[in-house]
Amino acid sequence: MEAWRCVRRGYGRCVVGRGRYPMFTYYPRSLGRDWTTPWDNLQRCCWNRHISSCMRWPGHYSRAPYPYFSSRQFSLNWRPPCLFESRAQFQYYNWRPDNLGQTSLIHLSSYVMNSEGDEPSSKRRKHQGMIKRNWEYICNHNKEKTKTLGDNSIDTTCEDSENKFDFSVMSYNILSQDLLEDNSHLYRHCRRPVLHWSFRFPNILKEIKHFDADVLCLQEVQEDHYGTEIRPSLESLGYHCEYKMRTGRKPDGCAICFKHSKFSLLSVNPVEFYRPDIPLLDRDNVGLVLLLQPKIPSAATPAICVANTHLLYNPRRGDIKLTQLAMLLAEISSVAHQKDGSFCPIVMCGDFNSVPGSPLYSFIKEGKLNYEGLAIGKVSGQEQSSRGQRILSIPIWPPDLGISQNCVYEVQQVPRVGKTDSDLTQTQLEKTEVLVTTEKLSSNLQHHFSLSSVYSHYFPDTGIPEVTTCHSRSAITVDYIFYSAEKEDISGSPGAEVALVGGLKLLARLSLLTEQDLWTVNGLPNENNSSDHLPLLAKFRLKL
Ligand code: KL2
Q: Which of 165, 133, 171, 139 is nearest to 152 (CA)?
C-alpha cells in the first residue's frame, strides 16, 4: 500500500518500514537530541512574555509568534495584543471559566517512554490534570439574557427570540496521514503510537461528535480515509458531506459537512487554485464554497454561504497565497451575491497559513491592502526573516486570470451593462481602457465583504498569543473562522458601497490555548488531541 502510494504521488520520499513503527523513517534514538524540558526553561521565564521567546523545543524557533505585531509597515490592522476586536465586543464580553458543563477537556499525557533512545521518564515532569477549553459567550446584556443549558447547548433569550436561526461552525485541520508521514520531522516530540491513523481517527471523530457542530469545515481530509471512514462516520452522525480534493497528485482536500436537520443544499462550488495556463498558479490547493438554506419555516430566510480552504503552506510564496485568496473571494462573491446587489451572510473558514496581523490576514479583515514594496516572503508572517525577498509585482496576478483587483470575476464587472462595443463612443471606449489600465497598475487590492474574525488571537488578561497549531517547528495561529458580522445601521449609512442584509451575530466561541498550555500535554498531536491543529468552534445567530 505504501509503495503504491509513493508511485502514485511520484515523490522520491518513499517511507520504508523499519522496526517497531514501520511508517516512520527515523529512529526513536533521534528523539530529544536537543530537547530541554519545558519546565526547566519556564521557571526562568516571565509568564507575561511570549512563551516562544523563552522555550526551546526540538527544532523550535526562538521568535515572537506573530512578527507583524513588531513590524507595522504592512499591518493595516495592528493593535495592542490584549485588546478585543472592538470596544463594543469588549463591553459585552462574558467570561465563564468555571462552568464545567461548558468546558472541553484536554487530558495530560502520562505515558512512560519505553523504547530505546526515548527520553528517560525521569527527565519529563509527569502532569496529572487537564487543560480546559471554555465556551466564551459574547452577549449584549442590554438586549439579551444568556443562560447555559446542558453540554453544548445554549439558549439566548431575546425580545425577538422567534425570529432567529442559531447554528454552530467548526473549522478543523485534521492532519492528513500522508502529510504527517511526509513531514515526520515535525512530530518527533510525539509518542509513536499516537501518530497512527487507526489511533487518531477515533479521537477526531469523538471530538466532532462531542461538539456536534451544525457545519464542519475540515482541511487535510485524505481522500482514501474520506471514502472509507470519514464520510460514512459523519453521515451516520447526520451530516451531508461535500468534498474537494487537491489537484495534481495531492491526496487530501477540503470537506464541508452540514447537518441535514439544519440546512438544505442550494449549490456546491469547488475552486481549484491550479491554473495550467498561468505560471504563477502552479500549486494544487483548493477551496470549496457551499450555499446552504437554513431549514426554518420563515419564507424570508436568506441562504448562508460557507467557504472552506487550505491555502499554500510555503512561507516564501505570498504572491501565490494572495492570488489563491483572491480566487476564493471571487467565488464567494459570485455564490453569495443576491438579486438586490447585496451578499447573503458569509462564513469563511480554513487554514490560511498566515498569522494574525500579517498583510494577508489584514487584507481579509480590512477589505483592502496596498502591497507596494511588499516582499513576497512577508505576506503571511509565518517567518520573520524570509529568504523570499522578491517584491510583489503589480499586479500580482496576470489579467488572464479574469479576477479584478477587487477580487470579483471580471465578467461581473463589465462597465457596459446592456451595451455592446458599438453602442459606446470612441471616447467612452478610450475611457474604459484607461480605467482598466489604471486598475492594472494599482497596488491596491480590495474585496467587498466586511469580515470579522471569531477569535481575537490574544488572551485579554495576559496578552499571550492563542495558537491553533503546535508541533516541533512552530506554535502559531493559522486557522480562522471569518464571518460577515451584523451591521446595526447599515441601511442608514450614507455611501455604503454594499449593503449587507442581516449579517451574523457571534454568540460564543470555544476558547483556544497558548503554546505553553499545549506543551504541558506534550504538544500536538497527543493522546487525546489527534491533529497538530486544534478545532475552532463558533456559535452564530442569524436574526430574521
Ligand atoms: O502548516 V499546515 O502543515 O497549515 O498544518 O499546511 C501545510 C503544512 C500542509 C499542506 O501543504 O502540509 C504541511 N514544512 C512544514 N510543513 C509542511 C511542509 C514543510 N516543508 N510542507 C507541507 N507542510
A: 133
How does 402-413 read in b/e, with b if 16+ C-beta sit within 10 Å?
Answer: ebbbbbbeeeee
| pLDDT tens track for 216-270 | 999 999 999 999 999 999 999 999 999 999 999 999 999 999 999 999 999 999 9
If 0-12 CB within 10 Å is exposed, 13-18 middle and 19+ buried, where does residue 55 land?
Answer: buried
CB 312 near ligand 1, within 6 Å: no
Would the CB of 181 count as within 6 Å of ligand 1?
no
Out of 181, 183, 250, mutate this one to test ligand 1's pocket (max ligand atoms within 8 Å of CB): namely 183
> From the DSSP assignment, how many helices (H) and strands (E) are in the chain?
11, 21
Please give the model's pTM, rounded to 2 decimal places. Answer: 0.76
* Smallest CA separation from ligand 1 atom 23, residue: 313
The Å distance, Cα 224 to ligand 1 centre, comes to 19
Half-sphere exposure of 425 (CA within 13 A, CB side): 3
Digit-coded pLDDT (tens) for 272-293: 999 999 999 999 999 999 999 9
The C-alpha cell at 457 is 488571537
Q: Is 353 in the pocket of ligand 1 (CB under 6 A)?
A: yes
Q: Is 351 in the pocket of ligand 1 (CB under 6 A)?
A: yes
239: part of which helix (H) or strand (E)? strand 239-245
Q: What is the DSSP string of 150-205?
A: SSS-EEEEETTTTSEEEEEEEEEE---HHHHHHTGGGGTTS-GGGGSHHHHHHHHH
